[in-house]
Amino acid sequence: MVYDVAIIGAGVVGTLIARAFSKYDMNVVLIEKTADVAMGTTKANSGIVHAGFDAQSGTMKAKLNVRGCALMEDLCKELFVPYEKNGSLVVAFNDQELETIKVLYDRGITNGVPDMEIIDAAKLRELEPNISEEAKGALWAKSAGIVSPYELAIAAAECACGNGVEFKRNFDVDAITFADGVFSVKCKCGCEVAAKVVINAAGLGAAEIAKKFNGEEYEVIGRLGEYGLLDRSCAGTCSHTIFQCPNEMGKGVLVTPSCHHNILVGPSSVNVDDVDDMSVRVGALRQIFATAQKSVPIVSTRDMITSFAGIRAHHVDDDFIITPAKDNDKFINLIGIESPGLASSPAIAEYVEEMVINTIGKPVEKANYNPSRKAPVVFRELPPEKQEALIAENPAYARVICRCETITEGEIRDAIKAPAGAIDIDGVKRRTRAGMGRCQGGFCGSKVLEILAEELNLPKEDITKFGGESKIIYERTK
Ligand SMILES: Cc1cc2nc3c(=O)[nH]c(=O)nc-3n(C[C@H](O)[C@H](O)[C@H](O)COP(=O)(O)OP(=O)(O)OC[C@H]3O[C@@H](n4cnc5c(N)ncnc54)[C@H](O)[C@@H]3O)c2cc1C
């Protein structure tokens, strides 16, 4: 079959593009190198829906960030994705930084950011009682928010696949050719997909795919960002996203609540050569926490339950590049989608949809398109009478598998059965939070493995942690 559109990369950008095209009467395929949705940069970032004052005026980053931020709240409601408009604060510690936040405010006005205010130290302390005594004032952007990035991508994929998009996992694009109006997208394993339009949303892999297609070169630098995640007991540390003034390497170290009431501290910003190595460097956390303590002195590594890292795809021009290949307007490259790529993602999807429609004409819309997905059950958040009703319907909701996060067997089975559902332990974790609590899966991991094997009808030895060679059980010992 020849697909109308092939999208390479199932991060937040690719999945939202897939959802955008799933409303049309078209055959669409979403291609992903790894075993699951949201395994790239979308998995590990700050989860901030930036207001849009940071990007230089007139850039794609500025335009798409402001639009994305405006779209995000309704999108998250529609897709049942955790989101909170908590507002952000850029804190100034001296006169020079007070000038910097004024520059950011003016830039925000030019970029079209609504609801900003420069506040003094007293107001800042009223908003954030744990802020440092040294803070002199802040830029308060009330339109900024927090979102669960991987849940947004998962929800978008569920919506797209529920509307007929095909999801191909473990499809590592190695070559693309074009003949007679059709692209042939080839996987390393030898399989092939034919399509009339190709969208290259492969994140850190996008520049290489662009080069493989027609030799076009984009200069992209991998930029590592490391984090520490604090236990839920620290939830009261702050309610806004607290930034320090930005520098040439990015927006600096922040302290923020996550959508699931943990506190996130980070990221670092270090250029790296190996974009596959997402390990946290020795000593990095000490440095990150020391920097974070400048704005919120009470954050401490003692409260950390885990650490992680992600890598940004930074283009040397410091902007998003969303453009057709130079000799083929049906091959669209998305390069350098670093921060604010998550905040911009709904607007990026809209922009790419428009680009394609301008090239091929507007396809017919499906009469039965569903812009949403099946609402996931979040058992722990239900009132007792609803929990009881659910258990009466399906006793699997009565069995708690993850004790730290109170995740039931019913929720885990739902996550596996969903469109583009979980096929490994980390896939269940990202969809349900089983394994995200204090014990980090120490207690529930083996039970999740059993449920996966049962639902997927596979031997337990075939269940992995995150696809590939990440096996958990090698052989029976007794
Ligand atoms: C430390 C850090 C902090 C950040 N904080 C924020 C923030 O707070 N707010 C914000 O707006 N943005 C933030 N970002 C940026 C944001 O995370 C990214 O812009 C966004 O996740 C990019 O999504 P994507 O879909 O383009 O890329 P990805 O999520 O990387 O998805 C690309 C997909 O393509 C796949 N792929 C790659 N090569 C191939 C291939 N050859 N064949 C098939 N598939 C392939 C990958 O496996 C991956 O799944 C941050 C980024 C980092 C690293």
Explain this structure.
This protein has 478 residues and is an alpha+beta fold. The chain has three domains: 155 residues, FAD/NAD(P)-binding domain; 156 residues, D-Amino Acid Oxidase, Chain A, domain 2 (2-Layer Sandwich), CATH 3.30.9; 84 residues, Arc Repressor Mutant, subunit A, CATH 1.10.10. Helices cover 31% and strands 24% of the residues. The protein has twelve helices and 22 strands. Strands 1, 2, 9, 10, 11, 12, 19 and 20 form an eight-stranded mixed β-sheet that branches. Strands 13, 15, 16, 17 and 18 form a five-stranded antiparallel β-sheet that branches. A hairpin with a 5-residue loop joins β15 and β16. α2 packs across α8. The longest helix is centred in the first third of the chain and has 20 residues. The model has no long low-confidence stretch (mean pLDDT 96). The site of flavin-adenine dinucleotide (FAD) has 41 residues, from α1, β18 and α8.
CATH superfamily of the largest domain: D-Amino Acid Oxidase, subunit A, domain 2
Structural class: alpha+beta
Uncertain segments of ≥5 residues (pLDDT<50)? Answer: none
Radius of gyration: 22 Å
Kindly state the mean pLDDT as a whole number? Answer: 96
- What is the top-level CATH class of the largest domain? Alpha Beta
Q: Could you say which overall geometry the principal axes of the C-alpha atoms support?
A: globular
Give me the number of helical elements. 12
CATH architecture of the largest domain: 2-Layer Sandwich
Characterize the main sheet. Answer: 8 strands, mixed
Could you tell me the strand content as a percent range?
A: 15-25%
Q: Which molecules are bound in this entry?
A: flavin-adenine dinucleotide
State the total count of DSSP E strands.
22
Number of domains: 3
Report, as a whole number of angstroms, the end-to-end distance. Answer: 48 Å
Helix percentage range: 25-40%
According to CATH, the fold-level topology of the largest domain is: D-Amino Acid Oxidase, Chain A, domain 2
